[in-house]
Amino acid sequence: MSKAYLGLDIGSISTKGVVIDADSNILASEYIWTQADPIGAVKKLLGVLKEQIAKAHHQIVAVGVTGSARKLIGAITGAVIVKNEITAHAVGTMSLYPDVRTIFEIGGQDSKIILIENGFVIDYAMNTLCAAGTGAFLSSQAERLGVGVEDFGEIALTSEKPTRIAARCTVFAESDLIHKAQIGHKKNDIIAGLCRAVVTNYLNNVGKGKKIEPPIVFQGGVSKNAGVIKAFEDAVGHQVTVDEISHLMGALGVAILAKNTGEENPFSFDIADIEFVTRGVECGRCANNCEIICVYQDGELLDAWGNKCEKGAIHTATALRAAENPGRR
């Protein structure tokens, strides 16, 4: 069997996975909704990927994980590398666009900008506080307007005079949208205005003070919105490239990182049949009172994290009991 590598990107809104071969060619890929259940989402994702490579005669020898649930999923998959989203997205993008200088990324609940020079990340910024520049914001406004969010981009492109929408935050934007609709602005102009508002919010917050240089690659779920792409190009004065797998860049990047470690920990899709349970524990062994996240496999403690000092380090069931009952000997 030929060697293959699995990359998983588990976000708050969506879960992505890719399987690559030794030359980083994508053998299988999938994108599904996380639905507040990262373990369940990964199990479902693995089932789809297993079917896609069932006849390919490949053995996954290493797993890489990124995204907001990376520690949890890294523990249950036996990942050889667990990496932050900045590195994963940069590696994935540079594997397809070696000359990229700026990466725009807008996901469901957060956004980021990555600046690259000579193949190295030299600066980045993330925004996780304001939803006005994210996919969740566009989805909620699409529902308010009675339009499918998947149609937002094409509708925006029909506008000749986009409505100016306040972009400072979600509350102001929603209030302004309602007001503009009530005084008679056309729906396509409002939608185009919302796309511009997302871009304005992004550039004024995530991109504030950053030197944006081409080539520019735009990724994340919002990159599929043609209206936002045009708004970016109008705002920065440069072409913005969107790859057909722009939503999978993080998963691709961490799969490549797993391959590049040279480490192997053969992976079985049978993990989808194993029961994993998570539990939060407040450590009382010092004033930090850290919330420790424990993950169990078939009732056995598999891993734990969240401690700010060694007193909260939990590697065994005995240590777990000590953390929960610090006064007992």
Q: How do the helices and strands line up, and which of them pair or pack?
A:
Elements lengths: L1 E9 L3 E8 L4 E8 L4 H15 L5 E9 L3 H8 L3 E2 L2 H12 L5 E5 L4 E7 L2 E8 L7 H11 L6 H5 L13 H13 L4 H19 L10 E4 L6 H11 L3 E2 L7 H13 L14 E7 L8 E7 L2 E6 L11 H8 L5
Parallel strand pairs: 1-4, 4-5, 6-9, 9-10
Antiparallel strand pairs: 1-2, 2-3, 6-7, 7-8, 11-12, 12-13
Helix pairs in contact: 3-9, 4-7, 6-7, 7-8
Largest sheet: 5 strands, mixed
| Secondary structure: number of strands | 13
Number of domains: 3
- Tell me the overall shape: globular
Explained architecture:
With 329 residues, the chain is an alpha/beta fold. The chain has three domains: 2-91 and 250-272, ATPase, nucleotide binding domain (Nucleotidyltransferase, domain 5, 2-Layer Sandwich); 98-242, Nucleotidyltransferase, domain 5, CATH 3.30.420; 276-324. The chain is 35% helix and 25% strand. It has ten helices and 13 strands. The chain has helices at 38-52, 70-77, 85-96, 135-145, 152-156, 170-182, 187-205, 226-236, 249-261, 317-324; strands at 2-10, 14-21, 26-33, 58-66, 81-82, 102-106, 111-117, 120-127, 216-219, 240-241, 276-282, 291-297, 300-305. The protein has a five-stranded mixed β-sheet with strand order 3-2-1-4-5, with helices on both faces. The protein has a five-stranded mixed β-sheet with strand order 8-7-6-9-10. A three-stranded antiparallel β-sheet has the order 11-12-13, sandwiched between helices. The protein is globular. The N and C termini lie far apart (52 Å). 46% of the residues are buried. The mean pLDDT is 87.
